[in-house]
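Table S2 (text version). Query chain:
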Amino acid sequence: MATTSGQRSTWLKAVIILSATVQMVTYAVPTPLLSRMATDFHGPMDGYMLKMILGIAGPAMMVGAALGGVLTDMGGRRPTMVGSAMLFGLAGAAPFFLHSLPVILATRFATAAAAAAIATIGQAMIGDHFPEAERPSWMGLFVAVGMVTGFLCFPASGVLGEIGWRVPFLIYLIGLAIALFAVATMPRHARASETPRVARAAEGPKPTPAEARAANYPLALFFLAFMTGPIFTLPSIYLSFYTHKFGYDGPSATSVLLTISAVVSACAAMTYGWARKRLSTRFIFGLGFALGTTGLVILALAPNIWVCSVAMVFTGMAIGCVNPNIFAAVIDSVDEHHRGRALGITHAAAALAPAIGVTALEPLVSPLGIGGIYLLLAAAAALVTLSVFVGGALRKRVAPPAAPCL
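Corresponding structure-token output:
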């Protein structure tokens, strides 16, 4: 159950905020270092493995989020957070000492899996320790902190990388600080699902597995999380190839456009709590995907790089609306005994989708061009927008007022 404000310590809030940083740190630290690392590794498969230092993060996060969600519900928040944070810190910093690229790649899998578990637990803690009225503000802050961490960590890693490519990996030692704060401040029995099994057995008859799945796993929200992968992630993947047509061959133009999107996303996420007090969850979903549709259409039809920057403003606002809304809605839709697992599935769906999207769309890149791919993604976003609003209208027609999961 949610605790009162007086029971929440500053350090417990620090654990939640720090848990918001780890996923972006996972991506941001190695990104500027790959070319420098290539000077030390020259084997026949080393080029592929260097690319997989980033590529392996998605599958690893899918595994880590799902496993972390199960473990935090079954074993408790604190032990799962402490274990995941220690793994993140030690595995993340390991490349500072390692000289084998396959072993480094294995540590990258462990780091990304631990990061997803930490983020899942941190979001579950928002549901555990804050009343429903405060959760949207904290979820917006959670997403905003992640965005800000990303665009601060890129230049920090680049500067440290000038000393040597191994040095930036020490940034991952932040995981040990998270573990220390978790040990010191996270309560042993923060919620009913962490009470002894004997006490839980006396609570009364349990629902059947089918009833539990129907009551505790919001499938519509999992679908929306899955759709954020191709709609909001693939445009960034294709962006560096797309700017070539405007005469920008270096990474600087792509970096500026992505920074615009990240800054706008962070600002939008920071206002999510304010918006949620005035707008329904369903309306914010519809608004977010509509903004995404608009941004993708502008991007597809952009005649120059300046119009692309306008498109990134729209996509940034969309991400800042949709991301915190999904996780806040999941927390509100499930009971505390299933909160970690539901959030883990949500993270896993979002992590899996980009790889599926790239694989599905790759045969269409040549005939359609990247502009055509953006139009296809815009059509998908428009269909999601339509389904959100039409689904809301139909729900009002056929059912009495209820607490919807969307």
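Notes on Table S2: The CA atoms of residues 363 and 369 lie 10 Å apart. Residues 5-188 form a domain with the Growth Hormone; Chain: A; fold (CATH 1.20.1250.20).
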